[in-house]
Amino acid sequence: MNLNFRTITLEVDHRGVATVTLNRPDKRNAFDEVMIAELDEAARRLGDDSSVRVAVLTGAGAAFCAGGDIGWFARTAELAREERVRQSAALATMLSRLDRLPMPLVGRVNGAAFGGGVGLVAVCDLAVASDEARFALSEVRLGLVPANISPYVVARIGAANSRAVMLSGAPFDAARAEALDLVAHAVPAATLDDAVEELVAAHLEAAPGAAAATKRLIRDVAGHDGAEVMALTSACLADAWESEEGRAGIRAFLDRTTPPWRRR
């Protein structure tokens, strides 16, 4: 997957582990219209590539992502409303595409995550942060609102915690990010790569089709209740029993052999 991106890099190793790196270190990896488009394209490519088993999202340099580029904000403010809405919709589409990747998305939060950077953490299935990382939902301090990222942040940390961190925009440390469940673990910076690798290795044990189906199931269950959930989950398990992976996994368990997705 050799693509000529300007603001990000995308690499896939021999195991099928993709690493997407925000690559504007001089701007603390703040995103503008170019990065938004490139992240959207990277997510689209990853979603279409069945050889990719796990994806990792991180930042180059000292920061993870400082949110929206102020220059981009200023340019957007000068546009007609229709174009401003289009720019906002492009951001919403990119976040949704990352959130709906069929493979697990692991956040490697190597440094500061502010504003939209917190949104990028929240669309990851789980994230590990350096204990030196700082976080802030800082939009209100600029007279803005965390609009596009709010569905993902609220889903991750809950409404009460969202009020606690969104309404003041005050920064908080990695330990609080862990306590809020924004990140799964806060670890010493020197061990960040080891912690990410441990999560990646665990996800490589899962059947890729089953992992993708489980991500869809979680979204569907969260959006339904009662009889709808019963019907949905009944069909989902029946589908899994009938799938090639399901048959292979049951056979491997009964035969005490290794399932095919672990033979790498």
Give structural notes:
The protein is of the alpha/beta class. It folds into two domains: 196 residues, 2-enoyl-CoA Hydratase, Chain A, domain 1 (Alpha-Beta Complex), CATH 3.90.226; 55 residues, Lyase 2-enoyl-coa Hydratase, Chain  A, domain 2 (Orthogonal Bundle). It is 49% helix and 14% strand. It has eleven helices and nine strands. The strands form two sheets. A six-stranded mixed sheet has the order 1-2-3-4-6-9, with helices on both faces. Strand 1 and strand 2 form a beta hairpin. It is globular and about 60 Å long. The mean pLDDT is 93.
Report a brief summary of the structure:
With 264 residues, this protein is an alpha/beta fold. It is 49% helix and 14% strand. α1 links the parallel β2 and β3.
Number of domains: 2
CATH topology of the largest domain: 2-enoyl-CoA Hydratase, Chain A, domain 1
Widest β-sheet, arrangement of strands: 1-2-3-4-6-9
Strand-pairing-aware structural class: alpha/beta
The coarse silhouette is globular
Please write the CATH class name of the largest domain.
Alpha Beta
Q: Tally the helices: what do you get?
A: 11
Q: CATH homologous superfamily of the largest domain, by name?
A: 2-enoyl-CoA Hydratase, Chain A, domain 1
Level-2 CATH architecture of the largest domain: Alpha-Beta Complex
Major sheet summary line: 6 strands, mixed
Tell me what portion of residues adopts beta-strand conformation: 5-15%
Radius of gyration: 19 Å
| Helix content bin | 40-55%
Average pLDDT rating? 93
Low-confidence stretches at least 5 residues in length (pLDDT < 50)?
none
Number of strands: 9
> N- to C-terminal separation?
20 Å
Task: Give the ordered list of helices and strands.
Answer: EEHEHHEEHEEHHEHEHHHH
